Amino acid sequence: MKAPVWNTAKEQVGTVELNDAVFGAPVNEALLWEMVRMQLANRRQGTHDVKGRSEVAGGGRKPFRQKGSGRARQGSSRSPLHRGGGTIFGPTPRGYGYTMPKKKRRAALVSALSSKVRDGEFLVLDALDLSEIKTKILAGAFATLEVASALVVIPEKNEIVEKSARNLPGIKVLRFEGLNVYDILRYDKLVMLRSAVEKTEGGL
Q1: Segment 91-110, tens digit of pLDDT
Q2: How far is residue 192's CA from residue 122's CA, in Å, rounded to a whole number?
């Protein structure tokens, strides 16, 4: 399978051969859902916390005597039955993260890449060369390419491109080693540099 290669002026400058095992595989939507669910769970901080009866301040003395009042016996005003008392079975700090087998994670990433190619939302750029950190220049290039929402994958660290894209709404620049299912599916288009395509195929 071949894909056209474009420059930032929206001129086709060649083609690139895509590996069918990476960009032309069957799309497993159930696996995509499972992977996104895992990624979002791993992002949760889990710092929620409430105080139980042993953590609430006060309640050192018995609210009223044990016998003779006609009421049910009470040992502390910090009981969950009292106003201002502790919370029963409230949330406490915990980790929501979990993992999936390596083969399933790889298959999910391949499915995500293949879905972008299948849906015509995949774009290969020859290069993304900027002489200086300038958001306006990068915004103009994406406007010419008619790209408003995209994940841009670069082959290596490029501080000029990464910083130029920070203030662009709808655009995220990611190095190829950080490629993940959630970000691929989150944006309308997947834009990859030709060298990033080759490195992604080699890494998978």
Answers
A1: 999 999 999 999 999 999 99
A2: 8
For 21-30, what is each residue's pLDDT tens digit? Answer: 999 999 999 9
| 3-state SS string for 115-134 | HHHHCCCEEEECCCCCCCCC
Residue 42: CB partners within 8 Å, gap ≥ 6? Answer: 96, 97, 98
DSSP the chain: -EEEEE-TTS-EEEEEEPPHHHHSSPP-HHHHHHHHHHHHHHH---------TTTSS---S-SS-SSSSSSPP-S-TTSTTSTT-PPTT------------HHHHHHHHHHHHHHHHHTT-EEEES----SS--HHHHHHHHHHTT-SSEEEEESS--HHHHHHTTT-TTEEEEEGGG--HHHHHHSSEEEEEHHHHHHHHHH-
Under 8 Å between Cβ of 1 and 116:
no
CATH for 2-45+98-203 is 3.40.1370.10
Domain regions of the chain by residue span:
2-45+98-203, 50-90
